[in-house]
# Entry
Amino acid sequence: MTQQKSIQQKLDWNTLYIYIALVLIGIVTIYASEYQEGQSFTFSLAKNYGKQTMWVGVSVLIGVAILLVDSKLITSLPLVLYVAILFVLALVAVVARNVNGANAWLDIGGFKLQPSEFSKCITALFLAKYMARSEVNFKQFSARIRAIIIIALPALIIILEKDTGSALVYCGLILVLYREGLPGYILVIGTSLIVLLIASLLVPKFILFGIFSSIVLYLFYSWRKRLRKMRNQISIVLLIYVFCSLFVLVGKDFVIEKVLQPHQRERVLITFGIKGKDKATAKKAGYNVIQSKIAIGSGGLFGKGYLQGTQTKFNFVPEQSTDFIFCTIGEEWGFFGSLVLLGLYLLLLLRILNIAERQRSKFSRIYAYCVACILFMHIMINIGMTIGLLPVIGIPLPFISYGGSSMIGFTVLLFILLKLDTDKMSVIR
# Structure
């Protein structure tokens, strides 16, 4: 009884209220995405909104259990959980049946579970556990490489499952390393590679080589009087030049042809205007995005009203209760309704960052930043693809999209943070 009272007093209720608001918005939006004109409300577990309500109930029970357990249990299990989830992910990649182009789901007792949704939380815990160890000096190159390997291993296995969208979320964890002392130039190089990948799709290779060579020649010309004293800088420039050249020659084709699935590759090429310039091709391959933008745009400032969305009602938008659920919000609640949802997400991220900075434990701080980065990547990618700014890769909108695995995964991710915040332990071993 004393423990429960202590948790109630220390719990960050503002964060919990935002969670509850998002979950409720998710349920009513999923109901709207399935609603047909003239339909009377009857609760049914055969419908997605009924199943989602059940998954929310399960998630809340798990969340309450997390709040009641000893935090030392949470901090003692990351290695075991990490090894276990790597094994499960590898197993899924081999035995899971193909669903929507990905081998990412396990059929267990009539339910489909997606282990990659749980791997994000476990990876965040293990990364925090490793980096919080007193003997780990993150200024050392070896420590940074180990941290990157911790992030990369599950992401690479998920790519083997052909679930590129989930794997992409792990890129956000690099921001956590930056917060803990990763040099800024690493972020610059990473961002530059993304820009280079896009540029290599839009610009002929010989032009890119010309740009690289011009930059190198300019640097050599500028340093001509100090060449002997600047050997290290010159070596770095030449190394980057060679790396960028190899990336343009080999890396781009490998990413586009081998990593992305055919339908994802087609969507990427259409997004950047490389393919589908004729209306017939664009309409066929980019159908999801076209219908998504029509639905969101038709909502105007204030929307058509709850359950009044025509694009939603007549099933013009594919996957409208999962990956494209933001379309339903945009159509029925309009620009201001979408703004309210984005405002709730912003408040949630700010609350998490506030929780992170008040932690006495390095473990808790690093984990909190992992939570913020994972949620941010999901929000950015999902909404970006529904409004046509990013290629469609299939990724849920946190607490809103239909899905038991994602609902439980995001809830566990957040409630572990709330539990750690109630303790604010100063030492993690």
Q: What stands out?
A: The longest helix spans residues 325-357. The two ends are 28 Å apart (CA to CA). The chain has a mean pLDDT of 81. The chain has 19 helices and two strands.
